[in-house]
Amino acid sequence: MRGIDALFEGNRAWAKRVEAEEPGFFEKLEGQQSPDYLWIGCSDSRVPATQIVDLMPGEIFVHRNVGNIAAHSDLNCLSVIHYAVGVLQVKDIVVCGHYGCGAVRAALENRELGLIDNWLRFIQDVMRTHAGQLARLTTERERWDRLAELNVIEQLMNVSRTTIVRQAWAQGHALALHAVIYSLSDGLLRDLKVGGASEEELAASYAEASALSP
Ligand code: CO
């Protein structure tokens, strides 16, 4: 079976399975959502947020776009952060990138793909910030992998500089930020060790993260 029919069929089977495993699951969720996490990740079909951390619907608030970008001017991403922090009061924000990211590769190779090139400029900004470090790597694969990591870290720093996160911290809300990367080859997440629950913690971890200097 192909096309939209496959989706309906899959959905019916899934809903039946979930309800059988946990009777009343959907009824309970219908009342309200109270996720502890906001996830900002790549749209890549191989990196589905809720599935790879083995959680159920209702447990992660998700924003995904090409290249897991958190741009200061992106009203969509800012609105998601605002709603997650201000209304849902999530405790943790995770920015998750992945190795083998096509967006990162296109940015690295300065490919001309059309409209999306404008979006990929945000990743090229990260390239410029860390040009020296990337130039010291010997293979294209190493540069691709490292740029994917650096992009996660810089997007996390962008999240930390939003008025939303700054205000939450100023008001004493417990909100921690985390930079992680996913490996398509083994299905595992790796902590990039940049993050924290305050501006100071984040700045210290950014400085400590080895070889971050240009
Ligand atoms: Co990607």
Give the helices and strands, then pairings.
Elements lengths: L2 H19 L3 H7 L5 E6 L6 H4 L7 E6 L9 H13 L4 E7 L3 H7 L7 H14 L1 H6 L3 H21 L2 H8 L5 E7 L6 E8 L2 H10 L6
Parallel strand pairs: 1-2, 1-3, 3-4
Antiparallel strand pairs: 4-5
This protein binds cobalt (II) ion.
Mind explaining what this structure looks like?
The protein is α/β, with parallel strands linked by helices. The chain has 2 domains: 1-31, no CATH class; 33-212, 3-Layer(aba) Sandwich (Beta-carbonic Anhydrase, Chain A). It has 10 helices and 5 strands; from the N terminus they run H-H-E-H-E-H-E-H-H-H-H-H-E-E-H. A 5-stranded mixed β-sheet has the order 2-1-3-4-5. Strand 4 (176-182) and strand 5 form a beta hairpin. Helix 5 (102-108) crosses helix 6. The longest helix is centred in the C-terminal third of the chain and has 21 residues, at 140-160. The chain is globular, with a radius of gyration of 19 Å. The site of cobalt (II) ion has 7 residues, from helix 5.
